[in-house]
Amino acid sequence: MRLNPTETMQTLLTPLYASSKFHMTNGLHYNFMSLILQTLQGYATPSTVYQEKVAALAAALKEENAQIGVPRKSEQTALLWNAVEACNTLYTHLRQIVRGYAGIPLLEQHVVATQLKAVFDQFPLNVKWKMGQRMGSLTKLMTQLQAEPAQSWLCEMGLEKVVEEMAARHREAQRALLDRNREVSKRTPAGLQKARKVTDAAYDECVEVVQALYTTQPDEELLQLIQSCNRQIDHALTEMAGRKTADCRVIADEAEALRASAEGTEDATESKEVQ
User: Fold this and answer.
1) SS percent in the chain: helix, strand, coil, step 5
2) What is the reported pTM?
3) 143, 159, 172, 218: most buried, per Cβ within 10 A?
């Protein structure tokens, strides 16, 4: 529905200055811009300028997302953890079998199991270790298990297929880790900073077009778009203000604790001097 410009106040988007966008956290910045983009994309207009500016914002956000990157959501990370978990499960069961046979002298495989247990003990694996340390230790273990005489011992116990499967999963984990590292290495602070600036510029151009459209051709849908964007801006500014207040509160609490500690030290010193 067309609105009469003389009957409506000039409703414009709430100003979002460069300093405010700059001080947004990466997560807040991307989330805010994504919500604004969704709102802009929901408005149908024949204006080619509007469509071009919204498309530019979408392209900028796509690059910003690539620079931010969320490893847990990446395909390589999923492949990595699946392979690691499968390898850990096989390792745990294999070690338990070897230890079990090594602990029972009456069994025929006791001798070879004892020798295999020594190999496992030489290259321990702790799931609490960091990924690099775990992968390194497992690589050394796999090298020993796939060579003689450990290979013959495994065959004697009928466990060679387990080691083959574990080796395959370990290779998958190594490839996924390498691919993920390459992916993450492309995400640099400078690259993200540059991507955010491009997004900010695209956002500013969208704001200019929206306000120009509303000034020349105001309608109800465009008014609702502006109001929706303003709510998103207000939410973002409120979140930033709340975080700043919380940070100040933490600093104040720490300062108070330091003062209390200092006063306590002074009191103790005076007490000793009196004694």
Assistant:
1) 80, 0, 20
2) 0.47
3) 159
Q: Which two structure tokens, joined as six digits, stand for 69? A: 């990157």
Question: Which residues have a Cβ under 8 Å from the Cβ of 21 and sit 6 or more positions away?
Answer: 29, 196, 200, 203
C-alpha 180/C-alpha 176 separation (Å) is 6
154-168, 187-201, 235-249: least confidently modelled range: 235-249
Answer yes or no: are the C-beta atoms of 117 and 98 closer than 8 Å: yes
Confidence bin at 118 (pLDDT 50/70/90): very high
Distance CA 127, CA 248 (A): 39
pLDDT value at 207 more than 90: yes
* Residue whose C-alpha is closest to residue 50's, from 232, 201, 196, 205: 205
Residue 254 pLDDT: 43
Q: What angle do CA 125, 182, 199 make, to 5 degrees?
A: 130
User: What residues have CB less than 8 Å from 206, skipping those under 6 apart?
Assistant: 36, 40, 53, 54, 57
Please provide residue 128's backbone torsions phi and psi, each rounded to the nearest 5 degrees. Answer: -85, -10
Asked if residue 216 lies in contact with residue 11, where contact means CB atoms within 8 angstroms, the answer is no
pLDDT attached to residue 8: 39
**Each residue of 234-262: pLDDT tens digit?**
998 888 877 654 444 443 444 455 445 54
Q: DSSP letters of 221-238?
A: HHHHHHHHHHHHHHHHHH
The answer to whether the peptide bond before residue 71 is cis (omega within 30 degrees of 0) is no
Report the distance separating Cα 32 and Cα 235, nearest Å. Answer: 9
**Cβ-contact 162, 90 below 8 angstroms:** yes
Residue 19 in tokens: 């300093």
